[in-house]
């Protein structure tokens, strides 16, 4: 009598554990250049919280393919794919004082970009300074530069990070930070002039 119950219990447990597999599908890491591998190895990655891992999912946004949607409360970024699918990435968003929402477009993409902090940031934190691209640079491995509806630079970016331990937090000055491996993946997928919605 016990064995059928045990088998049924194990089967039910397996079915429950399989449910996330139906909803979330891990995606392979993008191919990296030699420089990517060398520099990304210098930014220690903490063990990732599975809630903020990169997954292919059913699209929850309803937006057109090629659109980026950032859900700040969820600390998630969605890249919308055809066939009602999306890639979901965990992100760091702006803290309460510097968060923003709205619609923008990507007007520039850059690998291992130099960082030029805006005057407002330097005023708040006099210790920050311009920096060449590299593993210590706060923009990380890639950056997507955002313009408003008139084409003016918003000064906000979607970019990598040298603080991957903050993914899932509200800790930036308004930019959307991603793990370096994730921002490379997004950079490879997203087109120039892609629409970005921050909610």
TrEMBL record:
CDD domains: YkuD_like. InterPro entries: LD-transpeptidase (IPR050979), LD_TPept_cat_dom (IPR005490), Transpep_catalytic_dom (IPR038063). The active site is at residues 159, 175. Residues 1-18 form the signal peptide. One of its GO terms (biological process) is regulation of cell shape. PROSITE patterns: LD_TPASE. Residues 66-199 form the L,D-TPase catalytic domain. The keyword Signal applies. It comes from the Bacteria. This is L,D-TPase catalytic domain-containing protein. It comes from Methylobacterium terrae. The lineage of its organism: Bacteria, Pseudomonadati, Pseudomonadota, Alphaproteobacteria, Hyphomicrobiales.
């Amino acid at each position: 009598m016990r064995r059928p119950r045990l088998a049924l219990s194990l089967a039910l447990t397996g079915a429950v554990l399989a449910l996330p597999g139906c909803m979330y599908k891990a995606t392979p890491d993008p191919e990296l250049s030699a420089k990517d591998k060398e520099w990304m190895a210098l930014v220690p990655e903490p063990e990732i919280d599975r809630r903020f891992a990169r997954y292919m999912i059913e699209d929850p946004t309803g937006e057109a393919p090629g659109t980026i949607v950032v859900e700040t409360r969820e600390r998630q970024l969605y890249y919308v794919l055809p066939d009602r699918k999306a890639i979901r990435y965990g992100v760091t968003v702006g803290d309460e004082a510097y968060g923003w929402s709205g619609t923008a477009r990507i007007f520039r993409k850059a690998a291992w970009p130099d960082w030029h902090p805006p005057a407002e940031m330097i005023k708040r934190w006099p210790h920050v300074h311009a920096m060449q691209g590299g593993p210590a640079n706060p923009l990380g491995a890639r950056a997507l530069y955002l313009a408003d509806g008139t084409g003016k630079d918003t000064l906000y970016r979607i970019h990598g990070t040298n603080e991957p331990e903050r993914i899932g937090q509200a800790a930036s000055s308004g930019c959307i930070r991603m793990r370096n491996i994730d921002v490379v993946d997004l950079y490879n997928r997203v087109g120039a002039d892609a629409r970005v919605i921050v909610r």
